Amino acid sequence: MSQANPRSYRTSELIPVLKETLWLIQSGIVRTTTYTMQGKVTALGYWGKDNTVGHPLNTVETLQIECLTDVQVVPIFRDEWSLHLPAILHHSEQTTRLMSYVIQENIAQRLVNVLGWLGSRFGVSVNSGLLIDLPLSHVALAELIGSTRVSVTRLLGKLAVEGAVFQHRKQRILLLKDLSSLDIVSITCPLNPHRKA
Length: 197
What we know:
This protein is an alpha+beta fold. It folds into 2 domains: 7-78, Sandwich (Jelly Rolls), CATH 2.60.120; 104-187, Arc Repressor Mutant, subunit A (Orthogonal Bundle), CATH 1.10.10. The protein is built from 5 helices and 12 strands. A 4-stranded antiparallel sheet has the order 1-8-3-6. Helix 1 (85-102) runs antiparallel to helix 2 and helix 3 crosses helix 4 (149-161). The longest helix has 18 residues, at 85-102.
């Protein structure tokens, strides 16, 4: 375990990105993002307790680690990385899984897969389903699946009509049923072919 003292960050603060340091999350949730050459935000993942984040895992120059809640982290320096191999491998596994979802051509499939991924990682069982217990604006979901806010809003509306999701207060999403059983064709919105996804 790291001998360093825990460090605390408040909601919306950025955790420093250091070339030789990983951060082990002890509590809270962060989002990692980068920017395209055009300045568009692209989400790289959502991370919580016992996950590691940092430049050595995402070597993009514009990496940011944004706190979605109050967060406590411990720095892990290079000579300690081998002690945290399971957490590092978990980061790689989850990143690969997320990327396999967001490269799907069908936008509805991307959204459904990513909601399932978020539910499996941050879901809390409640009476009516599985509450994804982190703030998820339509813009944030669009940044995660490589789409637009308008498309995400339309698709969430379709999913709500299908009885699959409920858009909870405070930007929380409640999954009302197993999304893997959905007929994606039935929820695909007829998008204007001249409009970007």
